Fold:
Amino acid sequence: MMKSLSLMLAASALLAAPPLAANDPAEESLRARPQTDEVIYFVLPDRFANGNGANDLGGYPADRLLSGYDPTHKGFYHGGDLKGLTEKLDYIQGMGVTAIWFAPIFKNKPVQGPAGDESAGYHGYWVTDFTSVDPHFGTNAEFKAFVEAAHARGMKVYMDIITNHTADVIDYAEGEYAYRSKGAFPYSTRGGPNGKAINAGFAGDTDPSLDNWSRLTDPDFAYTPFVREAEKDIKVPAWLNDPIYYHNRGNSEWWGESAVYGDFAGLDDLATEHPRVVEGMIDIFGGWIDRFGIDGFRIDTVKHVNPEFWQAFVPAMKERAEANGIDNFLIFGEVYVDGPTPGPLAVYTRRDKLPAVLDFTFQSAVREVVAGNASPEVLARMLEGDVLYEGGAQAALRLPTFLGNHDMGRFSMFVREGNPQADNAELLARTLLGHAMLLTLRGIPTIYYGDEQGFISDGNDQLAREDMFPSRVAQYNDNALLGTDATTAEQNYATDHPLYRAIAQLAGVRAGNPALRRGLTEIGTYDREPGLFTVQRTDPDSGQRVLIAYNTSSEPIVRDVELDYRTRGLVALAGRCPASVTAPGSVRLELPAFGWAVCEQVDR
Structure:
């Protein structure tokens, strides 16, 4: 373990809370805790901890193409499960984590893909049964035990859900899969505008309403869908087995009309404008709230679903949660966009009426500044865009923020790519700075599992989904990790890792200061090249004011910066803060390279 870094934070990990008794008042406290107070840990159960080797095959034959289990291949099941995740709650909570979001655990089609290029549903996004836990992960009873164990510790549980698609079961008789547009293949005819009318409810109707969906009984207007005999009844609930409830237009081209109506990389694209689909999805996911008392949903592939679906689905989920006594039910959508401009994200809070979205603009801004050496002005412009979200800057407080994830790759990878000449000490220092921004700027910080152990992915998707338990994947095990001499060939749950300790310390500071959880942001000083960036965050209820400063450059900074004119003294919450101001409205800060300071302002 490296011990020489001046930026390494030495702080004790937060102690795990004791389990709560049934009906303990602390359960009410859990429900009442504001969404903005959370620190989220995002985990892929298959890659986190293997608590029960008996379910590694998921009950399937011991053939990797049937069971999907091959711990030597990055694209197959590795054995992690709900039992293992439950057994590691001490470790997770030790970082100051208050909520766990995990990749989908619904039963998946074990293996998909053309011969020679198969992979498995270890990630959870190829659902066949929306009502059951995948047997590779455990049982519904084990999921209930996990939720209860987390709640007993005061930790919330967020499920990752999919409404856009199911596993790839539907084929096309034509043997082609290129996208066929609504203009070329309208709902009213088979084979295109010159083809045969297939539905009296649509033929001649220039403005078909949603009610007409109930009369559309022949789905082969674009392609002729069919399901192989062995898979005709594998989807649950049973209505999902009828091709009428899918678009059947071929693969998405990821832009324009096809982004909503096309199959997501071959996955069967649900007709989410169909009233039966809306009703069915509300029933499915409302049932998980009823049965397990979960605390929120992260919604996958939001931008590939029509806005009207969300306008019906979100209120129904909030109503179901409230009926179960679940206050502050968090719903946030995944809208995968790149770039630090908030406009494309804000659309989904205004038009689609989502309460929150996963904050890709935050990720882009921090990545550009800390990993890519852009001016801190990028951060300022991103934060100024908070007014674009429905509800403005107040609503931006409940946007889950993150640095990297299972799709795009890890933040440390971006740091390495942006600074190829940097040594390990600098890479770790920059990565620590990114986490300091994550845990002290506005939003709900979300830690990607393994980041706290210095994992560095080789790329995105499968290359960023390493095992926390001893891995047998050569492409993972040849990576040098940050802040440790360990590799992924051994287990990585070290509570003394510098990133784990830093996250725990900063999460503790955040938990103890309302301005860091609920404070609105006033942008202060920023440089036009790598250097200083300051903000002041003020909690509207307590009045607490906190000055936060970051040095994004490789040189120390000594600078006079503006702060509230009432301030006469400062209390260091993290980093170095002077005890008093230089003059009313000004304080001199000293920041090391890639350093930061979090200073409470006090009036004397």
User: Anything to note?
Assistant: Residues 515-602 form a domain with the Immunoglobulin-like fold (CATH 2.60.40.1180). The longest strand covers residues 127-133.
